[in-house]
Amino acid sequence: MVDLFDFKNNAEEENADDGRLIYSVTQINSEIKTILEDSYHSVWICGEISGFKKYSSGHMYFSLKDENSQISAVMFSGYNQKLKFSLKDGMQVLVYGKVTAYVNRGTYQIQVYHVEEKGLGTLQEAFEKLKKKLAEEGLFDSSHKKEIPYIVNRIGVVTSKDGAALHDILSVLDRRFSNVEVLIYPVRVQGEEAKFEIANAIKYLNENHKELDVLLVGRGGGSLEDLWAFNEEIVARAIYNSDIPIISCVGHEVDFTIADFVADLRAPTPSVAAEVVAKSRTDLEEKLSMIKSRMVNSIKNIVELYDEKVKFFKNCRALSKPYEIYEEKIQYIDELNEKLIFNINNLILSKQQNLKLNAQKLDLLSPLKTLSRGYSVCFKNGKIVKKVNQVGKDDILDVNLSDGSIKTKVM
User: How does 132-142 read in b/e, with b if 16+ C-beta sit within 10 Å?
Assistant: First the structure.
């Protein structure tokens, strides 16, 4: 233990002229640092991590809190490299270290050498419980999420009017596309009333400003407690029931809230959210230029393709020398015609020969041939008389001769 009497003697010696005990700021902070380190050089403290940050140097800074108080903590990289788990907000831990003071700022803190995990803090437990409940109800399902328009003309912003988030959003919008319309609905983003204001703002904009293309809902970074309004069920359901697409932009890239899971899109920061909805003129010009280039190349390829086809048809005999095709076909037709006439004549000649032969055969069998040799044929009542008993006295007979016929009466 450091003796306060020694400090007083030192101060009195430095200010002996007027008899007053006067410390410099550095002197009093240094002496307090020594007192704290000598008094609490090895302590165990149980608490919940809040406001956790890890810098590029590897050093970790956070607060330890309970229901009524909190203390700052630092764990330098030489010690935290031994950790077997990651520290995060809401985690209940048991830390070992010494209580010291940061002289430059006049604040005291615990310098942590060792950390043991005790479990989730109250807020973190509430976060996990609500997250599980809403997930089971389907509020996080991708099928319900709406697409963010590529070109946005009207943007609604739900955030604090005094926060850095609004300034960052407006700066990005002005830089990237200054003619976009922005409707700001200022709300509290921290405290007990914040959740109601945020939920009411989303509902109001949906009912009264349906022309908005997208809503940006969020705030700047902070501890788990600072961001808690965006972990409330009333805010989650307001986001889920919104007809206007919503981009959540709460805190920093490492911060996740219930609002992020329900929203149609999560942006790691408010600035990134503004960049998502406000495509820069350069981006649009480059995209249009790319589209134009593709169209020109496509048209050029089509023209070249049809140019090749034209050249092909131009050199085709059917178009360049059509008469040659006709001449060839005419010659072929002449040959067919000649063959047809030849075949017809042969057919006629064959038929004529057959007819003559058959006529000769018929002539040999013809009864007229027999009559020409002096024979005759008798008919009685149109029927040939072959026997004598077929006629009687006074019958009239027709007698056919080779050159005519005569009638005769049987006596």
Answer: eebeeeebbee
Q: Is 108 helix (H, G, I), strand (E, B) or coil?
A: strand
Token pair, residue 22, equals: 């006067």
The angle subtended at Cα 73 by Cα 68 and Cα 77, nearest 5°, is 155
**Could you tell me the pLDDT band of residue 369, with boundaries at 50, 70 and 90?**
low
Give 381's DSSP letter.
T
* Residue 231 per-residue DSSP state: G
How high does pLDDT run on average in the chain? 85
Strands (E) located in 76-187:
91-102, 107-120, 154-159, 181-186
Banded model confidence at residue 260, pLDDT cuts 50, 70, 90: very high
Cβ neighbors of 183 (< 8 A, separation 6 or more) are 154, 155, 156, 157, 205, 209, 212
| pLDDT at position 121 | 67
pLDDT bracket for residue 88 (50, 70, 90): confident
* pLDDT-above-70 percentage for the chain: 89
Instruction: Using alpha carbons only, give the angle 68, 71, 72 rounded to the nearest 5 degrees.
Output: 150
- What pLDDT score was predicted for residue 313? 76
| Helix, strand, coil in percent for the chain, rounding step 5 | 45, 25, 30
User: Quick one: average pLDDT of 215-226?
Assistant: 87
* DSSP-assigned letters across all residues of 297-332: HHHHHHHHHHHHHHHHHHH-HHHH-HHHHHHHHHHH
What residues contact 399, with CB distance under 8 A and at least 6 apart?
Answer: 376, 377, 378, 379, 405, 406, 407, 408
Residue 370, by phi and psi: left (phi above 0), alpha (psi -120 to 50) or beta?
alpha
Enclosing H/E stretch for 273: helix 270-277
**123 touches 225 (CB < 8 A):** yes
Q: Residue 362's pLDDT is what?
A: 79
Residue 120, pLDDT above cutoff 70: no
H or E stretch including 399?
Answer: strand 396-401
Q: Which helix (H) or strand (E) holds 63?
A: strand 60-65
Residue 221 contacts residue 255 (beta carbons within 8 Å): yes
Count the alpha carbons within 13 Å of 371 in the hemisphere toward its beta carbon.
Answer: 14
